[in-house]
Write a structure and sequence with these properties.
- The chain is 72% helix and 0% strand.
- By secondary structure, it is mostly helical.
- The longest helix is centred in the C-terminal third of the chain and has 46 residues.
- It is globular and about 75 Å long.
- It has one domain.
């Protein structure tokens, strides 16, 4: 009798990868609700505290700019909103990837809740940018490369929101939204490097990973506090919305089961 070797090839991917196991540890809705319920109050409190401290410091205690005067204080809202608009879309793309590749049960719900929050921060970024641009450039809006690419980001968020809700079958909507989110990632480096690739009205980045900040510490620290507070606030809002979506799905499933049992 000839024996058959049924052992998997050393180069073949394992059916249950380490990444998949780690992701699906948090896929259970009950586990997610318990964990997020413990963490959410702390995340929200830290977000509110840091944002309030940064805004008070930036709007009342930090010095005015020698060229822009007090108009520079819009920076403490505009810049964190711009950072969160881009990082929020990166989160949306990551959730979409987890949905398409690992079929993570909570990824679709998270992506559907990230998009409206990201769109709100993007709209805030565009609005404050216009308010800042009027006294500095003499116009509310110009088709600057940075402003145009951020406007495209806003449309990508809106497109995701519309696609997710455009199908009778929710899974088809989640899949279409995930594909759009991954395609739209190409816009993120355009936003980041538009000031270097094209001649734009926006100044180059004042804070980089490769060099020292080009702004005074008295303006830098409140800006970083506002940005950090915004990150915690973004996470708190998305977590709260995702918790509500999970509970809504569970209530819908229980209601449907009750109706079927009574029929």
């Amino acid at each position: 009798m000839t024996s058959v070797n049924t052992a998997p090839s050393p180069t073949a991917p394992l059916p249950d990868s380490v990444t998949g196991r780690n992701l699906h540890r948090f896929a259970n809705p009950g586990r997610f609700l318990r964990l997020s319920g413990r963490v959410l109050p702390y995340v929200a409190t830290i977000g509110v505290a840091l944002t309030a401290l940064g805004m008070i410091w930036g709007l009342t205690l930090s010095p005015a700019d020698w060229q822009q005067g007090d108009a520079v204080r819009i920076m403490y809202v505009h810049v964190p909103a711009a950072w969160l608009a881009s990082s929020g879309y990166a989160m949306l793309a990551a959730a979409s990837l987890a949905s398409l590749v690992w079929r993570h049960p909570l990824a679709d719900l998270a992506a559907a809740e990230i998009a409206p929050v990201g769109a709100a921060f993007t709209a805030l970024c565009l609005a404050t940018g216009s308010l800042w641009g009027k006294p500095m450039w003499g116009a509310w809006w110009v088709w600057d490369a940075r402003m145009t690419s951020v406007l495209v980001l806003f449309f990508l968020y809106c497109g995701h929101i519309a696609l997710v809700r455009a199908f009778d079958d929710p899974q088809r909507g989640y899949r279409a939204g995930a594909i759009l989110a991954l395609v739209g990632v190409v816009n993120l480096p355009i936003i980041k490097y538009s000031v270097n690739w094209w001649n734009t009205l926006h100044q180059p980045a004042s804070i980089t990973l490769t060099g020292a900040p080009s702004m005074a510490p008295a303006m830098l620290w409140p800006l970083l506090l506002c940005a950090l507070g915004g990150m915690f606030g973004f996470a708190a809002i998305v977590t709260a919305r995702t918790r509500a979506a999970v509970m809504e799905r569970r209530i819908r499933a229980l209601t449907l089961a009750q109706v079927r049992a009574e029929a």
